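If you are new to this repository, start here. Below is one unmodified record pulled from the training split, so you can see the exact layout before writing a loader.
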Amino acid sequence: MDEKTRDRHVAEVRERGYAIVENAIAPELVEALDAALGRLERELDARPAENGFEGHRTVRIYNLLAHGAPFAEVPVHAAVLPIVEGVLDDGCLISSLSSIAIDPGETAQPIHADDMVIPLAKPHIPIVCNSMWALTDFTEANGATRLVPGSHLKPNPEYGGAYETIAAEMPRGSVLIWDGALWHGGGANRTDKRRTGVAMNYCAGFIRQQENQQLGVPPALARSFAPRLQELMGYGVYRGLIGHIDKQSPAQRLNGGGAFRSIWDQA
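And here is the target side for that same chain:
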């Protein structure tokens, strides 16, 4: 992604709360992700959670990074990560990586903001930046994410309240990126086919991750990941201070060797 395109999408997220990057993901990766999710759903016997938020006809699979390829390609994707870094900063972390498959007959998810559980007065600087990868076409009829443009600059919504929304329609292979303060929710699926997406969510380096990456992903698998992916998991140190272990980085403990200079050593 060139710098001009990146900056345009970052500006969109800042101004209206979201951006859509159409046809961002190569068809081969989309197909690999879709096939892997189908296999995992069978192996894990994944079923709807049957609650008002996660849905009664929505199948979700969490902690996807623990399953390695092809999911390891998602957090570091060149068409997505640079935009997220522009919204947060390059010290951002993986908050969670999961799939959301909305089956026919599912009702609309309650409108909410992804950072509602964090007790900070709004508006505030972006601390969460999330993305939805379209593994099928996203349409208003099949449950495309509903958005309230500009709402990231407002206080939290009343959970499940009635609000005027737009549908984030996009073709297969596209990615919706939004500020975690934006009011939104999954749509109702009024078609006879499943709507499938991958939710690749990030948070600022000083915020606790939604999914615990260090315990959720086996260390042996984490060691096989590229250094940047390890950093995104939380094996780095934010701004030379947050996350160190006795003045060592978590990556040093994971991989052995290496060096780390704290913020105080750099002063």
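Two things worth knowing about this chain: Residues 3-212 form a domain with the Jelly Rolls fold (CATH 2.60.120.620). The two ends are 34 Å apart (CA to CA).
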